């Protein structure tokens, strides 16, 4: 969820990207127009039913209408479940 706007962010790209099983993308360049160029704090959460784990992270991600790509300014690149 974008902490600035309160908007839920859902990854909906139809691009075919080869991923390792169990890997999920949170956002891509198609989301850049919904982000500020200074960066927005994005709250990411996920659950792994097999272990009963739930994890959350806060990322700061920049984009903007004039940007070509999104950029992770801070926060983890991965959330890993054991």
Please give the alpha-carbon distance between the first and last residues: 24 Å
Our estimate of the beta-strand percent is: 25-35%
Percent range of helical residues: under 10%
Q: Give the spatial strand order of the biggest sheet.
A: 1-2-3
* Helix run count: 0
Query: Largest sheet, described in full?
Result: 3 strands, antiparallel
Average pLDDT rating = 87
Order of helices and strands: EEE
Structural category is mainly beta
Write up this protein:
- By secondary structure, this protein is mainly β.
- It has one domain (1-73).
- It is 0% helix and 28% strand.
- The chain has strands spanning 40-48, 53-62, 71-74.
- It has a 3-stranded antiparallel β-sheet, with no helix packed on it.
- The mean pLDDT is 87.
Topology at a glance:
Blueprint: E1 40-48, E2 53-62, E3 71-74
Antiparallel strand pairs: 1-2, 2-3
Short structural summary:
This protein is mainly beta and 82 residues long. The chain has strands at 40-48, 53-62, 71-74.
Key structural traits:
3 strands; mainly beta; single chain
